[in-house]
User: Fold these one by one.
Assistant:
Number 1:
Amino acid sequence: MTGVKDGVTIVEAGYGSDLYGQALRLREEILRRPLGLVVTDEERADDALRQHFCAVAGGKVVGSVSLRPLGPHTLQLRQMAVSETRRGRRIGAQLLNHAEAWGRGHGFQMIVLNARMGAEGFYAKFGYGCEGEPFEETTLPHIRMTKRLA
């Protein structure tokens, strides 16, 4: 858990916990439902292999992110979501900073992610660089982005 900033605390949400359930609902609301999609059983199975972190305010999950090791030195960041009513309050920045600190603390040297086109500017502000050409994922164009942690 990290300190409270602007009434928001970043906490780990164990797979299957109440916080994880709230984060899953938030992800579905923000990342899937607008595309006419739902979180699949395959995505839930993949979630069991990830570390999940939530931004909590007033006892409610208002943001989430998950991390999965891809190897001994590389971590994949996925499922970054912030409640629409809480955007513009640096919750995404807090989640990203927490994820990077967690990665460093566990010996990871690189984070990779697939950013939706339009969101790459957010990650670029934090030192992530684009790699390769855009590609389609979950019906939208994305770009692979990376950042060295060490």
Number 2:
Amino acid sequence: MNKKNNKAAEENDNFRCGFVTIFGRANTGKSTLLNSMLGNKLSITSNKPQTTRNKITGILNRDDSQIIFIDTPGIGAAKGVMGNNLVRIAYGSLNSADIILVIIDALAGITREDEKILSRTTDTGAIVYLVINKIDLIGKQNILLMIESMKKYKHIKEFIPVSAKKGTNLERLIACVSNDLPVAHRYFDDDLITDRPEEFVFSEFIREKIYRLLKQEVPYSTLVEVNEIKEGKNEVLVVSANIFVEKESQKGIIVGKNGEMIKKIGTSAREDIEEFTGCKVFLDLHVRVKPRWTEDIDTLHKHGYTTEEN
């Protein structure tokens, strides 16, 4: 998906464009917030840590601005080699941000990890917002007390309470972000919602279903790789993908009795891919064993789970 050259002839001198990093602890609703602001499902969600494993770019095109959101892995859910790499990816995303949205879970309150995260944003040079999510779950007075307690962080420009799930206050958040971006021409074509290839987006949809349907630790040991996307008969999009796990026993869990679980995963993921593409889809899934892939740097690097430091 190609970047676009400056469009000076199409945009006025007040057009704004820049990068906005969505940052915070695991399970604060970062990915739900991104999807709600875009009005499209792009970043996968579940109630399990490490659901977001990569930086996900979501592009919101407006008449007066292009907002390039970067959804990041959650802080505080690190497990093993991959988990530590994901935390480095998240912190590394702060370096290129024009604006940082630090997301707080209103129901959980301000945690020690939240305080640590906010402290790390003081010297980035970016504009920092504190976004208090899930306000539909607590009372207004508690929200006000939370905001008051965080005013000690003088570098926070905006305190914005929202409900990503219900859409509350998102227009205000988007308007504030748009106004604070630097004056610049578009970075991407105005018909894109992400710079990620379809293979990545489809693999994430599949991985989300594994996270949502399986309650064991299996999801953390799964890797999804889309091998092929092609047009089949009657304009049906044929998508072939492998689901890798670390143990033979995990393969059995994902396949399920008489193949029932893999059918559920495939059906649910296919529906998301069809909604995303607007096409009929045939999804062909295979489960394979790849021992200790979560500790293999080459595999982690291939799938974007490492930083340049690795």
Number 3:
Amino acid sequence: MWAIPALFIFFLLSQLIQPDWETLNGTAAQVTGAGIQVPEDVMAILSSSCFACHSDENRLSWFDKITPANFLVASHIEKGKAVLNFSKWNELTPPQQKAQLFYSLNKILEKEMPLASYVTIHPEAKLTKEKVDVLKRYIASLAPRKTTATGEVAVPDTQSKNRRQKPAVVPAPNGIRYIEGYGNWKAISTTDRFDNETMRVIFANDIAVKAIEDQRTNPWPDGAVFAKVAWKEKADDQGNITPGEFYQAEFMIKDAKKYVETKGWGWARWRGMDLKPYGKNADFANECVSCHAPQKDNDYVFTAPLNLAILKLNNNGNF
């Protein structure tokens, strides 16, 4: 008979053990407005679905502070703020802010955020289709289309010729070498990154194309390689969007054993006309893995290949 009262007393005493909420909550100056200036409807969504774990404005419910669940809640907050803290939004540059919003939207679209376990006991945090559409429209508005002179549309052709005349390109910090001739591969898809105003063409080598034909893309076979080529977006005086200044070329190389520490893929990127390797050291690849993490169930690949009939056309590029 004494067991139940003893457990109850133990439960009450355990409530005296709490995480350091003061440190997690931050200062009053950090909390006010959560540091980000957005339209009222967007702020309402961020406040109800994001701030609890991604700002110093935690707004904990009474049941969030019950031991031992409170330590799990504190862990989620600590990890969430390490990835993105809206209370320190103004410490980021505008490009970094756009990239963070784009990355966050990907997490939402992949239904990784907000956490299902959090939404279960905090139903007000659930993101409906209407709320997601509000976020989409706002993020898209951050990259307005820019109209330029029609003559600038031809810039990529000249850039391509100049780039082919460059001397040997320096390898990426992780030792991966720049792959010449990817423009002769088949173009399998295109993408539009509205957060940084770039448009991209994705090329695949023969092994990757064969995998698409055989429907063996999850996982992709060793030897499959993708080349993603990006240009800054330009618009002519008619409003047509075309490639502008060359931005970067990046590669994903599949080798499950060689690149086991980076999810089976070798990552490399070169920026600008001089094809400068991206990253200070080999750890830059972790940034790539993190960006592609929403696609972990698709072998970390965002690209959805075009129809097979299109791939069988002679679509060799001129890059």
Number 4:
Amino acid sequence: MHTDRLIQQLAADTAPVHRLPAPWRRAAIWFAIALPYVAAVMLVHSESVTLIHSGSMPVDLSRMLVDRQFIVEEMAILATAVTAVLAAFYSVVPGTDRRILLVPLLPLTIWLFSLGEGCARDWIRLGAEGLTLRADWACLPPAMLIGIVPVVAIVIMLRRGAPIYPRATLALGALAAAALGNFALRIYHVGDVSIVLLVWHFGAVVVLSLIAGWIGRRVLNWKAVRLAAAA
């Protein structure tokens, strides 16, 4: 068979390939999907908390604006979500520098140190009581609900890219979704002792990211890419 004819046959049988949008555009699309959903869940949660507290306001806006730790944590959490989702989408682009996978560690570290500083302050101010860990089951239902759409959306979007680093990619996607949920949930925990936030909030983010990394190869693989492309 002549080379020219072989090329023609291969070209005729090849399905058209649509180039994915740039990673920052895909990140913006994800936020456009996730943010309204998170806001809606938190609005419903806010109304339920208000009813439980007999009409009192569960969120004190004036207290938030003067709480330095709260502001630092929220900025670090949001930066973690932004850098994690960007790194996740860049990680499914062939030829991307692997060092971009480490970028979310910077805001994540700032978030951790802020909580550590808060724990030290609570211990100095309250003594052993400042490090007493209490269960925070009230936030479990909204935390589980708040992650559904962001997680599903980012998994679907990541499955359309190249699974070069499937474990790291899925871990970053889970980190972005969990951080975004924490950004919203943290509003209802202004003034809480930091040990609760460290164990229940930060700890949950780390555990979810580790679990996602563990199952990364099962969720993101070339078979998943073919299925996503055919859909």
